[in-house]
Design brief:
heterodimer, A: alpha/beta, Aspartate Aminotransferase, domain 1, Aspartate Aminotransferase, domain 2, four-stranded antiparallel sheet, 12 helices, globular, B: three-stranded antiparallel sheet
Chain lengths: 384, 119
C-alpha cells in the first residue's frame, strides 16, 4: 500500500483542487455570499459585479465578444440540455458523432423517441477522429445542428474543430461543441473556428468545484429558454426576460460555484494552461510507454501526441474492468474509472460492449512517481 | 430453467427468473440476485459450478460469508480496502480465486445485489 491516494480519475473531476481556489472560495463567499443582481444594497451589487467579471473572463477564455452570452449552468450536461432543447424543433435533424457522451446522446434519443427529431451519429476512425467528409455525408436538408465532442472522455482524441467549424459555416449549420474534457486542456477559439455554442463544466480541467458550468453562445445564434422564473429583472411582468444572459438563467445563481470557477480560471492563467498541458502530456507518454508492451494489455485510441487530452483507456485480458479498478484501488491505492464511461457508442465501436474498459486520466497534481506506481501495478496485474 | 420478464419497464424487462434447487429466484440481467434473502449455500454451489468453480473450498466460503455478513450489518457491500483488510488477502489473489473474478464471481455468488453505479 502507498502512503497516499494516487488519483488518476481527473476526467471525472479534477482532484485535488488547487489550494488557492479553495481558499478564494471560502474567503470570497464569506464576504460576498449575497444574491447577485437581486437587490439594490451594496453587497448585492458587488456580488453582481463579480458575476459580470466572471462572464468577461469566460468570454475571453472561449473567444467570444459578448459576455452577456455566457450562461451559467450546473454542469456541461445541463448546458447541453439547454442548447439541445432550446434549439431543436419537431422535424429537425442533427448530425453528431459516435464519440459523444450520454449528455448528448440521451437528450437526442429522448427527442427522437418523442417523434420530434432524428439524428445521425457519425463513426470515428482508428485515431479517434471523425472525418469531416463523413460529417458532410450525414447532412440532410433538415439538418438544424451539428454536435461534436471536442475531446473524447474515453480515447482522449481531440477533434479538428477549425476544419469542422469551416464546414458548418459554409453550410449555415450551427456547431455545438461538448467541451467538458477540453476546456482548460486545449485552447478553444469559438469565433475564429466558427463554433456557435460551447458547453463546458467548471470542475474538470478548469479546476473549479462541482455544480458550476456554462453554455457560451456566439453572436450568430439564438436559443429559446427551456426554464422560466425569476431573473431579478422586469419582475412585474409574467413574460420571462428576453435579454441575455437572464433569458436562459432562471433562479438564483450558484454564487459559490461562480467564485470557484473564477478562481480556477485565474489558477490556469497563473500556472499557464499550456505549461500544465505539456506536463500532463509528458506523464501520459510515460504511462503509455510503460503499459504498451505489457502482455495481455490492450490500449484503445491513438498514442500520445500533440492533439490529445491526458486520458489512457485499456483492458486486461481475462479480467473484468471493474475488477481491475477494484484491485488498483484496494491493493495499490490508485483511483481510476472503469465501465462504459457514459459513452456507449464508443465502447460499441471498440467492441468493449457493456463491460467497458479501465480509464486512467491525469491532472496537474500527478507526478512521475504516480505514473511509475501505476505502471508497476499494471505490470503485476498483467503478469498474474 | 429460465423465464424472461415480459414487462415493458426497464427494471422488469431485464429480470430473469430461474429455478435453482428448490428455489424460484429472480436475477437481474447480469445474474445478480434481486433479493439477497433468496440466497442459500446450495444455490451458491450451483451458480459456482455454472461459472466453472466445481469445488468450493473453505477460503471460498470465508469470502462469501464475509460479503454476506458485511452486507447485512452495513446495508452495503464492503469497500475495496475493507475487503482486502478484512479478508487478509490482496484483491488480485481474491480475483484469481473465482473464475469470474470479484464482482461477477465472489460478489454475485454471495448473493449481493448488483452495484448501481458503473464500477
Amino acid at each position: 500500500m502507498t502512503e497516499r491516494l494516487i488519483y488518476l480519475d481527473n476526467a471525472a473531476t479534477s482532484y485535488p483542487k488547487p489550494p488557492q481556489v479553495l481558499a478564494r472560495m471560502c474567503e470570497t463567499y464569506a464576504r460576498m455570499g449575497f444574491s447577485p443582481g437581486r437587490g439594490g444594497y451594496d453587497q448585492a451589487m458587488e456580488a453582481e459585479t463579480f458575476v459580470e467579471r466572471t462572464r468577461w473572463k469566460i468570454a475571453r477564455f472561449f473567444d467570444v465578444p459578448d459576455p452577456n452570452r455566457v450562461i451559467f449552468t450546473a454542469n456541461a450536461t445541463d448546458a447541453l440540455n439547454l442548447a439541445i432543447f432550446g434549439l431543436l424543433r419537431p422535424g429537425d435533424h442533427v448530425v453528431t458523432t459516435c464519440l459523444e457522451h450520454n449528455s448528448v446522446l440521451r437528450p437526442l434519443f429522448h427527442l427522437k423517441q418523442q417523434i420530434m427529431i432524428d439524428y445521425t451519429p457519425v463513426p470515428f476512425n482508428g485515431r479517434g477522429l471523425v472525418e469531416p467528409s463523413d460529417l458532410t455525408r450525414a447532412i440532410r436538408p433538415n439538418t438544424r445542428l451539428m454536435i461534436v465532442c471536442h475531446a473524447s472522455n474515453v480515447l482522449g482524441s481531440v477533434q479538428d474543430l477549425p476544419e469542422i467549424g469551416r464546414l458548418c459555416a459554409s453550410l449555415g449549420i450551427p456547431l455545438l461543441i461538448d467541451a467538458a474534457q477540453s476546456a482548460g486542456q486545449t485552447p478553444i477559439r469559438m469565433s475564429e473556428w466558427g463554433v456557435s455554442l460551447a458547453a463546458f463544466t467548471g470542475h474538470k480541467a478548469l479546476m473549479g468545484p462541482t455544480g458550476i458550468g456554462g453554455l457560451v453562445l456566439g453572436a450568430d445564434i439564438d436559443i429559446q429558454p427551456t426554464r422560466f422564473g425569476g431573473t431579478g429583472m422586469n419582475s412585474e411582468s409574467l413574460v420571462h426576460t428576453e435579454t441575455y444572459p437572464h433569458r436562459l438563467e432562471a433562479g438564483t445563481l450558484n454564487m459559490l460555484g461562480i467564485i470557484g470557477l473564477s478562481a480556477g480560471l485565474d489558477y490556469l492563467q497563473q500556472e499557464t494552461a499550456q505549461q500544465l498541458h505539456e506536463q500532463e502530456a509528458a506523464l501520459l507518454k510515460r504511462l503509455y510507454d510503460g503499459l504498451v508492451a505489457l502482455p495481455g494489455v490492450t490500449i484503445y485510441g491513438p498514442p500520445p501526441g500533440p492533439d490529445r487530452v491526458p486520458i489512457l483507456t485499456l483492458n486486461v485480458d481475462r479480467m473484468s474492468p471493474s475488477d481491475v479498478g477494484a484491485i488498483l484501488d484496494g491493493d495499490y491505492d490508485i483511483a481510476v474509472r472503469t465501465g462504459v464511461h457514459c459513452a456507449p457508442l464508443v465502447h460499441e465501436t471498440l467492441g468493449t460492449g457493456n463491460r467497458g474498459a479501465v480509464r486512467f486520466s491525469l491532472g496537474p497534481f500527478n507526478t512521475a512517481q504516480d505514473i511509475d506506481r501505476a505502471i508497476e501495478a499494471m505490470t503485476g496485474l498483467s503478469g498474474r | 430453467m429460465d423465464e424472461s420478464g415480459g414487462s415493458p419497464s426497464e427494471s422488469q424487462a431485464t429480470r430473469r427468473v430461474r429455478f435453482l434447487g428448490d428455489r424460484r429466484i429472480v436475477f437481474d440481467n447480469e445474474g445478480f440476485f434481486l433479493n439477497p434473502d433468496d440466497w442459500s449455500k446450495e444455490v451458491a454451489r450451483l451458480l459456482a459450478a455454472e461459472s466453472g468453480l466445481n469445488q468450493m473450498g473453505p477460503d471460498h466460503w470465508r469470502v462469501l460469508t464475509f460479503f454476506r455478513e458485511f452486507y447485512y450489518q452495513n446495508g452495503r457491500a464492503p469497500l475495496n480496502k475493507q475487503l482486502r483488510n478484512s479478508l487478509g488477502m490482496d484483491l488480485l489473489t481474491l480475483e484469481g480465486m473465482f473464475p469470474e473474478g470479484i464482482k461477477m464471481g465472489a460478489r454475485r455468488l454471495a448473493g449481493l445485489p448488483n452495484p448501481k453505479s458503473c464500477l
